[in-house]
Amino acid sequence: MKKYSYLFFILILTTLTSCLKSGMEDLPEFEGNDITAVRKVEYRFKGTNTSGVSGEAYLEYQALKHTEQLDKDAKTLDIQITVPASDEATQFTAAKRAECTIQNIAIMVSIETAARIVPIGDAPRLGIPEDWSKPNKYLITAANGNTAEWTITVTSFTK
Question: Are 105 and 29 in contact (CB under 8 A)?
Fold first, then answer.
């Protein structure tokens, strides 16, 4: 019983005390609300291999070559995309390449630390295959609450 009383006393003591000192200065919040790079552009499709359990086709993807022009002052990102040649030795066959269009690609971007990005209006969700045939607007909110409206445009899509 004495052992349990001692443990209870230690538990209460540690609960009522704190390791933090009062009067510590607050750390500054991140102010960045910019896109910093295009991480990935890809086309996703059902492959020919199937799951032995469900019988469903596995989701495959093909990385698309891209270049980018990033203008932090104008808050614009222009992307030029090139679809690579088909490769019959892989899942990216000529038939799958023919199905790859600007209306069904996924784009992923990097943004400043601790920022959030959300589509404005009917802009595609980032990372989801959707239609990129028009300029799309996004709102980026920094950790400190500052916002910036960015426009992402696929300026060329070449096969």
Answer: no
- CA distance linking residue 150 with residue 34, whole number of Å: 8
Give the CA distances from residue 103 to residues 43, 79, 130, 138, 154, in Å, rounded to whole numbers and listed in that order: 10, 14, 6, 18, 11
Reported as a single tens digit per residue, the pLDDT across 42-59 is: 999 998 889 989 999 999
DSSP state letter for 68: E
pTM of the model: 0.81
CA angle, residues 158, 149, 35, in degrees to nearest 5: 60
The two beta strands, 116-119 and 65-71, are unpaired
**Helix, strand and coil in the chain, % to nearest 5:** 15, 40, 45
Quote the pLDDT of residue 48: 87
Q: Does residue 156 register a pLDDT over 60?
A: yes
Q: Encoding tokens for residue 106? A: 């996924």
